[in-house]
Amino acid sequence: MNLRELVLDMLMELEKGKVYSNILIRNVLDKYDYLPAKDKAFIKRVTEGVLERRIQIDYVINAYSKIPVEKMKPLIRNLLRMSVYQLLFMDGVPDSAVCNEAVKLAAKRKFQSLKGFVNGVLRNIARRKEEPAPDKQAHPIEYLSVTYSMPEHFINDWMKTYGEERTEKMLQAMLEIHPVTIRLKESLSAKEKEALFLEMGKRGIGAEAHPYLPYAYRLSHVDGVRNIPGFNQGLFAVQDVSSMLCVECAGIREGSFVVDVCAAPGGKSLHGAEKAGKTGQVLARDISDAKVALIEENVRRQGFNNIKTEVFDALEYDGTLEEKADVVLADVPCSGLGILGRKRDIKYNMTQEMLSQLPEMQREILSTVWRYVKPGGILVYSTCTIRREENEENAKWFLENFPFTAEDISGKVRQIPQAETAVEGFLQLLPGIHETDGFFIGVFRREL
Q: Alpha-carbon distance 409 to 427, whole Å?
């Protein structure tokens, strides 16, 4: 098994933009699960690293190549990218091995005539080991774009909204290693928790309590989620704390009827079902069989029997739910810019045209699902993005057009810094500022 060739093929596939990186990486690692942990870690790190640092890597290659990256043969372009990543960011891999293996791969894949070109570019970069970058004072946007591998149009937007200092903190956080975050079942006893963490420790997995919620933990040294003790037994769900906070702020109680209109993969539905208890029920819907299958898989694993799943488009009105729900969860499709640290390919695939269309679609969903909330009930609007157009502006529009008032959630997020807007019914979580993904939560109560 040639690990570098496998990574090269993965990068070639990802460049087509037809598959998400997290899904491709998971599928490849599952297929080659027999490989040693060290080899699987190499495949994952190089593939994710190239995506994460692609703009910076291309800038470096262009500084040492007479042929611009965008004009190279796709195979040569991706071969150089993965090799430069190893040269610049993986000290444990000898430079000579990186260069030699790249030359061999070029020849093996029928690019014998370009062996010298590949060798020359890589050895020049290896000799200098500097990372050329634009001048920060003269070209601040380009500097941030190259240094943190983020398209300039996103940085322009964030600078206008959040300012330069906060924007750079966010960019830094998006490049940091993101631990696996889990939500323990709240029904677990202290003895059961102790036994679970003891078993994790035996497998070399570290567990650290998250400061925001008592049942949230960050795990380190994880070799595949399915290999974590307790996963198959349904003792926990893998979920970011921002998503957990969404359910916390909803105020779900024993006996509540909850409708989750865009539920896949089901984390909030499962969390809501636990809070609703035996006398409550959650209706978890999403738009396709594949998405609902994800929810059902998690429901089975965690053993809940108070969740009903359905394939249903949130844009379609369902008269049978008129004023029936105590809580409606509307975690709507969004640009995903708050989770770029986890889903690295979003920043390359999300176009300005796509961005411009999202707020209108989100408003269409809200215009439909608000009617399911009973008088006095709660609607939670959430996204995993950091764009005002999809977040604060949509929340303001909703309150101006429908019979709802903003719900003060400050009592539910006391432990979170820089959460002043919670009294106004919403919270914008930012990477680098908060210990979560970028996420927006708006909580609205229907008037009586």
A: 9
pLDDT in tens, 68-103: 999 999 999 999 999 999 999 998 889 999 999 999
C-alpha distance across the termini of the chain, in Å? 65
Q: Identify the three-state secondary structure at position 379.
A: strand
Strand order of the β-sheet with 206-209 is 206-209, 216-220, 180-184, 236-238
- List, in sequence order, every residue forming a beta bridge with 282; answer none if it has no partner: 258, 307
pLDDT at 128: 81
DSSP secondary structure of 101-164: HHHHHHHHTT-GGGHHHHHHHHHHHHHH-------TTT-HHHHHHHHHT--HHHHHHHHHHHHH
Say whether pTM exceeds 0.85: yes
Two tokens, residue 118: 């590949």
- Positive or negative, the Cα torsion across 78, 79, 84, 87? positive
207 bridge partner residues? 219
Question: What gap in Å lies between CA 313 and CA 168, rounded to an integer?
Answer: 38
Q: Each residue of 351-376: pLDDT tens digit?
A: 889 999 999 999 999 999 999 999 99
* CATH numbers and ranges of domains, the chain: 3-128 (1.10.940.10), 148-174 (no CATH), 180-238 (3.30.70.1170), 241-446 (3.40.50.150)
pLDDT surpassing 90 at residue 218: yes
List b or e across 119-152, with b for residues whose CB sees 16 or more CB atoms inside 10 angstroms.
eebbbebbeeeebebbeeeeebbbbbbbbbbbee
Angle of CA points 41, 43, 44, to nearest 5°: 65
Could you tell me the sign of the dihedral formed by the alpha carbons of 184, 189, 190, 195, in that order? negative
Amino acid at 370: W
For CA atoms 37, 38, 39, 43, the dihedral sign is positive
State the burial class of residue 12 (Cβ atoms within 10 Å of its Cβ: 0-12, 13-18, 19+): middle
Burial of 49 (0-12, 13-18, 19+ CB in 10 A): buried
For residue 3 the two structure tokens come to 């690990």
Q: At what angle do helices 37-52 and 74-89 cross, to 10 degrees?
A: 110
- Whether the per-residue pLDDT at 130 is higher than 80: the answer is no
pLDDT, tens only, 308-323 = 999 999 999 999 999 9
